[in-house]
Task: structure prediction
Amino acid sequence: MSGRYDEITIFSGNSNPHLAGQICDYVGLPQGRADVFKFSNDNTFVRIGESVRQHDVYVVQSFSNPVNDSIMEMLIMIDTLKRASAGRITAVIPYYGYGRTDKKDQPRVPITARLVAKLIVQAGADRVLTVDLHAGQIQGFFDIPVDELSAMFLGAQYFVEKRLEKPVVVSPDLGNTKRSRNFAEILDAPLAIIEKRRLGNQDKSEVLNLIGSVEGCHVVIVDDEIDTAGSITQAAEVCLKQGAIEVYATCIHPVFSEPAVARLQASEIREVVVTNTVPLPVEKQFDRLTVISVGSILGEAIQRIHAGASVSTAYRSIGPYQSRMSLDTQLGVANGK
Result:
């Protein structure tokens, strides 16, 4: 590989070290040495254990629980690397926390997704690499280049290989319709939509209607994120009441806040397919859960960014589930095109 900068160095915060390790394995490099910890006074401290002068540096950190600590670690690591004369710093954010606070949907509320973007830029990041933002407009909150990959094709390819009989893709809400439509196109399946209403700022919603038919079908409910699993389990109940044979669920970001795992285990969902953009501790894993790694797609993107090659024209033949989709198509899926 050749590029503007001397060499690639990949560092990881504490939020998702296993994924960072998979990325390093794909790229074929050891992980950069760094100490990231808290003092007794709860202050975060970072010490880089090797020279990064003029290196092309990538910092891998999911903004997952504890979200604020994860963000602060990323900011301090970027600042540390900037002061150590890194040539270019890319913030690799597999899961962008606060992404759901992307607009003012009621009076006197923040747009925290933009605030976090400004903090990352101000800390010294030169570009961002992320996976399936909650809303495409978040890219515009950054004043630096943003490469948004979509891991949705990994889940779609998984279900293609399952060869479900008479599949139907269901979007659990109107806002996720474009993403679900693209998923349905890969499966060559029809699309149905759950119409629901969110109740205030609470993590609760009310299902109003099912648009489309699922009778006698194998349903795949598609979402970008599962938080408390209320929407997914409600959607599954509606589909089964409307005559679906069995229901599967898939998402990119398995946040699994309480009481998500209990709800999923108690539901009649046959299988839940997710990626590892958010780390899942043992207590959040269960027998009907399948996890697909995004390490290969992030590793491939890092190699191409470093080499100055086009990310959007790279074709996929990587990971456990091969895809015929190009990154250009994936970027379109991520942006709802």
